[in-house]
Design a protein that fits this description.
The chain has 191 residues and is mostly helical. It is built from seven helices and no strands. Helix 6 packs across helix 7 (179-190).
Length: 191
């Protein structure tokens, strides 16, 4: 218990130190935007944004289809299968779209970023940067964070549209409502 508590305290101190250094890097980046590595930021936007579109679209499409299928089955018992559009639209736009995109981005981009920085640590590139007096958070972490902050809302919109399309495909095929009615009910529900 003592070793576990000691390790937890050390990890917490390390994490809070990282958050402090990151806050300082964010402040410096806001004060001096010319010092941000914009070329690297655009590279990471491409890697974590554009390359993630197919998997985001597929996962969110399937999530919408699953929701619609479950909604048609359960609400169909009571003759309420027309409300599948409301169910899919609200649940995807309010909660599941952003959640699924966040999980996908953390899984893809987070692991790729961790592997890249881990490789740099093993090959002592981080030590070399610190020896040269460079702030590793500003050079390595900030471009990645800025890239994710920029692409996550766009990926969320793509995920929302894909989820609604998935719900529309299943809702139209299983419940018998028209595409136009599904569209109008979705717009009415999410507005």
């Amino acid at each position: 218990i003592g070793k576990g508590t000691s390790k937890f305290i050390e990890d917490t101190k390390s994490f809070l130190g990282f958050i402090g250094e990151l806050s300082s890097a964010v402040y410096c980046s806001i004060r001096h935007p010319g010092k941000v590595q914009w070329k690297e930021t655009i590279y990471y936007m491409d890697k974590s944004g554009a390359n993630a579109v197919p998997i985001v679209f597929l996962i969110c499409f399937l999530m919408g289809a699953i929701l619609a299928f479950q909604g048609v089955v359960q609400m169909g018992r009571f003759g309420l299968s027309v409300y599948v559009a409301n169910l899919v639209g609200l649940s995807i736009v309010k909660e599941l779209g952003a959640l699924m995109v966040a999980i996908i981005c953390i899984g893809r981009a987070g692991s790729a970023f961790a592997a890249e920085i881990g490789t740099m640590k093993v090959s002592e590139e981080l030590d070399a940067m610190e020896t040269m007096g460079l702030n590793t958070n500003r050079f390595l972490v900030m471009p990645k964070i800025i890239a994710l902050v920029c692409v996550m809302p766009l990926l969320t919109i793509i995920g929302d549209v894909a989820g609604i399309l998935g719900g529309m495909v299943v809702g139209v095929l299983k419940s018998g409502i028209s595409v136009n009615e599904f569209y109008l009910r979705t717009i009415q529900a999410i507005s």
